[in-house]
């Protein structure tokens, strides 16, 4: 007996786990981007967080509407068109999110430039809260060195080493800040990938169910039998007093006799 592998269980696992992981990674990346003031645009992790439940809800709604009726109705056709458009839009958005997340990781020069521009924007606007939050989070001073645009800002009462003297931090913020920017971008990318995995698993699961239902309906379908009216034919032959075999032998003899009479004439 051949061994058959049931693929529905792994598909269910990929669907549930993929959707859950995508949601968790998106939420974590969103929170880290806001808390650590990373240069990653806020809409990227926010979209990665929201795209997972929206995709799952769209797929479930499509399945529910398709099960309401086996025949094509204007409502079902309308929803099929809308769901198809939504699925395409979600795929495009997930692709954009994944691409932007990778753009904030590679190449390294662009990543360093983004971090420098973000810190410079805080420094020029004298946003002490932002720079101090980063320094306190990583226990560091300045961006590329201990004296590089560090808080407290240099003035009459503070020198370049004010952060080092007051806070006692002995490293710059560039390395840890850069590391968290990379890990957060990878979270966003992974969230988009897991959305794709959950979507593919749902489509494969739905296709598997449809093929199984078609097979079962074909197995249970009754075989049609050809109705042969032998009884009627035999009954008619018995009423006329002539059997079927007699008719088959009588016809050629009649034709032969008819031809002989024609030749004699």
TrEMBL record:
Lipid metabolism found in the keyword field: no
Highest taxon of source: Eukaryota
Gene Ontology cellular-component annotations: membrane
Transmembrane segments: 12-31, 43-65, 85-106, 186-206
Keywords: Membrane, Transmembrane, Transmembrane helix
Membrane in keyword set: yes
InterPro entries: Tetraspanin_EC2_sf (IPR008952)
Protein name per UniProt: Tetraspanin Tsp3
Organism: Uncinocarpus reesii (strain UAMH 1704)
Source lineage: Eukaryota, Fungi, Dikarya, Ascomycota, Pezizomycotina
């Amino acid at each position: 007996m051949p061994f058959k592998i049931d693929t529905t269980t792994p598909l269910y696992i990929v669907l549930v786990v993929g959707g859950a992981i995508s949601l968790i990674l998106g939420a974590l990346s969103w929170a880290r981007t806001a808390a650590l003031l990373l240069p990653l645009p806020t809409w990227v992790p926010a979209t990665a967080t929201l795209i997972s439940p929206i995709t799952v809800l769209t797929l479930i709604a499509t399945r529910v509407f398709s099960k309401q009726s086996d025949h094509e109705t204007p409502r079902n056709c309308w929803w099929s068109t809308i769901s198809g458009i939504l699925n395409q839009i979600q795929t495009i958005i997930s692709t954009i999110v994944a691409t932007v997340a990778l753009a904030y990781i590679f190449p390294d020069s662009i990543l360093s430039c983004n971090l420098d521009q973000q810190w410079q924007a805080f420094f020029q606007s004298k946003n002490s809260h932002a720079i101090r939050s980063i320094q306190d989070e990583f226990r560091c001073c300045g961006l590329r060195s201990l004296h590089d645009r560090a808080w407290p800002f240099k003035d009459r009462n503070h020198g370049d080493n004010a952060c080092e003297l007051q806070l006692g931090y002995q490293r710059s913020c560039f390395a840890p800040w850069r590391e968290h920017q990379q890990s957060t971008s990878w979270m966003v990318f992974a969230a988009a990938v897991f959305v794709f995995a959950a979507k593919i698993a749902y489509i494969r699961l739905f296709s598997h169910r449809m093929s199984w239902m078609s097979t079962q309906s074909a197995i249970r379908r009754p075989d049609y039998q050809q109705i042969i009216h032998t009884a009627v034919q035999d009954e008619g032959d018995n009423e006329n007093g002539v059997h079927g075999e007699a008719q088959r032998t009588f016809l050629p003899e009649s034709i032969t006799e008819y031809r002989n009479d024609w030749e004699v004439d």
